[in-house]
Recover the amino acids of this structure.
C-alpha cells in the first residue's frame, strides 16, 4: 500500500511541475502587468521569472525527469505483485511474470500521461495567469534548493546556444500584427465594440496613410489674387464661407500669405471695399510635404500655431491644403463623418458608388480585400486606377481585381469624381 501512495505522490508532483511549466510560459505579460499594478505580488514574481527563464526551465526538466525515472522504478515494483495476483485467477502459465510486468508498465505510463501531463497542462493553458501566480512561490523555492544542478545544466545550455549563435532569451516585442490579432479576438468575443475596433484600426492607418488621402486637392482650393477686384473677393467669401483664404500673386504657386475672412467682412460691414492690405495679410505660411504620413502631420501641427497647412510636392508646387479637422477625420473615420459626406455608398449587396478620393485602405475594408497591388504607390481609389492603367482613365474604363470591377462613371477634367465598384464572378487583375 505504501508503494501505491508513493506513486500517487509522484503523479501529483509531476502534475504540479507540468502545470507550472506551461502556465508560467503561457502567461500573458500584459495581463500580468495589470495584475501587478493592482497589487498582486505573485504576478510581479511571474514577470521576473519570465525575464530570466533559463534557471526555471532547467529546474523543471531536472524534476520532471527525476520523477519520471522514480515513477518507472517504483511503479513497476508496486503494481506487479497486485497484477500477478489478479492474473492468477485466469492464467497460471510460465509467462505470468512477463504479462504482469507489461500490464503494470502500461497502467503506470497511462496514469502519468493522463494525470501528470495532459490534464494539468490543459488546465494550465486554459487559466495560465491564475495557475502561475499560485505556483510561482513553490517553483522559486525548488529552484533555489536545486541551485547547483540548475546552474550546471543552465550553463551548459547557454554554451550550446552560443555555439549555434542562438539567442538565450526571448525578445518580447509586441508588433502591430500582435495588436491587430488581439483586436480581432476582442471583437470576435464581444469584449471590444465595433466602434472601438474601428477607432483602434484607424490609429494604425495613421502611419500607412499620407496627406494626399485627406487633404483638399489643388483644384478645390479657393484663393485670392492680390490684384483681384473687391467684387470678386466678396463673391468668393459668399460662395465659399471659409475662415481662411490663401493669397497669391498670379497663380497658386506664388503664395504671399493668407487672410482671415472676418477681416475682409469687417471692411464690408463698415461700407468699405473688400480689399486685401498688408495689415491683414499673414505672411507666415505653414508648409507640409505631401510625403508625410497622417501621424507625422499631426505631430507637426502640435508644434505649429497654424489652423491649416499648405501641402507641397518635391518641386515646391502646391498640391493641396489640409486642416487639423481633415486629419482628425482620417483618424476618427465614420465617427465624425456625416452621412452626406460618405465616400462609399452601398447600392446593393454587389455594387458600391465610390468617390475617387476615397482612401484605398477604407475601400479595402469595405470590400474585404487584404491589400491592393503595390498599395504604397498611391493613397486613393483614383490613384489606384491611374497607377494600374498608366494613364488618366476616361468614363466607362475599368479595372478588374480580386473579383471586383472598378469602373469610372464620372470624370471632371483630369479628376476621377466617381466609380462604380461591382462584384464579378471571376478574379482577375
Amino acid at each position: 500500500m505504501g508503494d501505491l501512495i508513493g506513486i500517487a505522490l509522484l503523479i501529483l508532483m509531476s502534475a504540479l511541475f507540468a502545470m507550472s511549466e506551461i502556465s508560467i510560459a503561457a502567461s500573458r505579460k500584459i495581463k500580468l502587468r495589470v495584475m501587478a499594478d493592482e497589487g498582486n505580488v505573485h504576478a510581479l514574481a511571474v514577470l521576473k521569472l519570465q525575464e530570466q527563464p533559463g534557471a526555471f526551465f532547467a529546474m523543471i526538466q531536472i524534476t520532471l525527469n527525476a520523477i519520471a525515472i522514480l515513477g518507472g522504478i517504483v511503479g513497476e515494483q508496486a503494481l506487479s505483485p497486485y497484477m500477478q495476483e489478479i492474473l492468477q485467477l485466469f492464467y497460471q502459465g510460465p509467462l505470468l511474470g512477463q504479462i504482469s510486468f507489461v500490464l503494470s508498465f502500461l497502467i503506470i505510463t497511462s496514469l502519468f500521461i493522463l494525470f501528470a501531463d495532459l490534464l494539468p497542462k490543459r488546465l494550465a493553458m486554459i487559466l495560465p495567469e491564475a495557475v502561475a501566480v499560485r505556483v510561482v512561490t513553490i517553483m522559486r523555492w525548488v529552484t533555489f534548493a536545486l541551485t547547483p544542478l540548475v546552474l550546471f545544466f543552465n550553463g551548459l545550455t547557454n554554451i550550446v546556444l552560443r555555439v549555434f549563435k542562438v539567442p538565450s532569451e526571448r525578445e518580447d516585442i509586441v508588433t502591430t500584427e500582435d495588436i491587430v490579432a488581439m483586436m480581432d479576438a476582442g471583437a470576435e468575443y464581444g469584449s471590444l465594440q465595433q466602434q472601438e475596433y474601428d477607432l483602434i484600426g484607424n490609429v494604425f492607418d495613421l502611419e500607412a496613410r499620407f496627406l494626399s488621402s485627406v487633404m483638399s486637392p489643388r483644384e478645390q482650393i479657393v484663393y485670392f489674387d492680390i490684384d483681384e477686384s473687391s467684387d470678386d473677393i466678396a463673391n468668393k467669401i459668399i460662395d465659399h464661407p471659409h475662415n481662411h483664404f490663401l493669397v497669391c500673386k498670379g497663380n497658386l504657386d506664388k503664395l504671399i500669405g493668407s487672410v482671415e475672412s472676418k477681416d475682409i467682412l469687417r471692411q464690408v460691414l463698415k461700407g468699405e471695399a473688400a480689399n486685401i492690405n498688408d495689415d491683414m495679410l499673414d505672411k507666415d505660411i505653414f508648409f507640409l510635404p505631401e510625403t508625410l504620413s497622417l501621424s507625422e502631420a499631426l505631430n507637426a501641427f502640435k508644434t505649429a500655431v497654424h489652423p491649416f497647412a499648405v501641402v507641397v510636392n518635391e518641386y515646391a508646387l502646391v498640391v493641396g491644403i489640409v486642416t487639423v479637422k481633415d486629419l482628425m477625420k482620417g483618424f476618427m473615420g465614420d465617427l465624425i463623418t456625416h452621412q452626406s459626406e460618405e465616400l462609399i455608398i452601398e447600392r446593393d449587396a454587389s455594387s458600391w458608388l465610390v468617390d475617387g478620393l476615397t482612401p484605398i485602405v477604407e475601400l479595402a475594408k469595405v470590400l474585404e480585400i487584404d491589400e491592393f497591388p503595390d498599395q504604397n504607390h498611391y493613397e486613393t481609389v483614383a490613384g489606384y486606377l491611374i497607377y494600374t492603367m498608366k494613364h488618366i482613365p476616361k468614363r466607362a474604363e475599368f479595372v478588374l481585381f480580386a473579383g471586383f470591377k472598378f469602373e469610372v462613371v464620372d470624370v471632371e477634367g483630369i479628376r476621377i469624381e466617381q466609380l462604380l465598384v461591382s462584384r464579378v464572378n471571376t478574379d482577375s487583375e
